[in-house]
Amino acid sequence: MAPHNFPQQTGYYKGKVRDVYSIGSDLLVMIASDRISAFDVILPRTIPYKGQVLNQIAAYMLGQTADICPNWLMSCPAPNVSIGQKCVPFKIEMVVRGNLVGHAWRTYQSGKRTLCGVDMPEGLKENDFFPTPLITPSTKAAEGHDEDISKEEIIMGGLATAEEWATLEKYALALFERGKSIAAKRGLILADTKYEFGKLGDTIYLMDEIHTPDSSRYFYADNFEQRQATGERQKQLSKEFVREWLITNNFMGKEGQTVPAMTDEWINTISKRYIELYEKVIGEQFIPIDLTEIETVEAINQALNKLLK
What is the pLDDT of residue 2? Predict the structure, then answer.
């Protein structure tokens, strides 16, 4: 969507995947686009229905976890749009890991046994469960790659007070437990995920999306142990398959590398995988909704007029 002017709009920010509008000093409109990013690079083609999938999974999961901590969401006026309270964000991502996968595995494989100041036990294989979930935070970079950071560095650097950190840690672990139990009912394992938090006054709020394929990695629980025992690749539902395709085609977001061409067939495959994840995680059929840009804007305006009253 092209940038718009909404009632009482005070700012606009185009993220890698979302377009974010500030309304007055209190509200945010977040439009989940069909853009897809990997290795902090926006890929050249959009993925049909990806925005709707992400937005609807996030709304569902925020609803399912509202008893654990307050969250920002107030309204979803269109399939790919969320409106909520504008918080002052902590400049950290709370990454919670239940399994040794992705960045944690790459670190482990390199011989290191500490990640973000957290110790990882010896003798683990890729995708093995950690004895208990680990929190390995990263800093939110405005540009470029997010950086690993330890709890001590967060508190010393003033990114959160010790008291705030204790709340962030408590919320992140409780949200992960809830996410794991929702996933387990659907035959999935929530392997790792990230949460973002902000403050309104003295209250800490959960922000942004949660437990979506862009922020989380899911394994199929069926035959998980068997695959681990035989060293077979785990079947997973996440954006990782896009990253793997890019790596195979010699792209990791490094300088001088070119994004490989994406065929119509490959775009369609990615779209189907996102829809599969929606149906698997939520347990309901995905109903694609095609609103025109005018209809989406109209729905946002109506919702804002109600909320601004």
Answer: 63
Give the list of residues 6+ apart from residue 239 with CB closer than 8 angstroms, or none.
36, 38, 213, 214
Q: How many domains does the chain have?
A: 1
pLDDT at residue 166 is higher than 90: yes
- In the prediction, which pLDDT does 112 show? 97
Is 160 inside a domain boundary?
yes
Rounded to an integer, the average pLDDT of 77-105 is 97
pTM for the complete prediction? 0.92
State which residues form the domain around 118. Answer: 89-237
Q: Which amino acid is at 297?
A: V
Task: Say how many Å lie between the first and final Cα of the chain, rounded.
Answer: 26
13 Cβ contact list (under 8 Å, min separation 6): 19, 20, 22
Residue 10 maps to a domain: no
- CATH number for 141: 3.30.470.20
Short-list 126, 84, 90, 133, CA closest to 108: 126
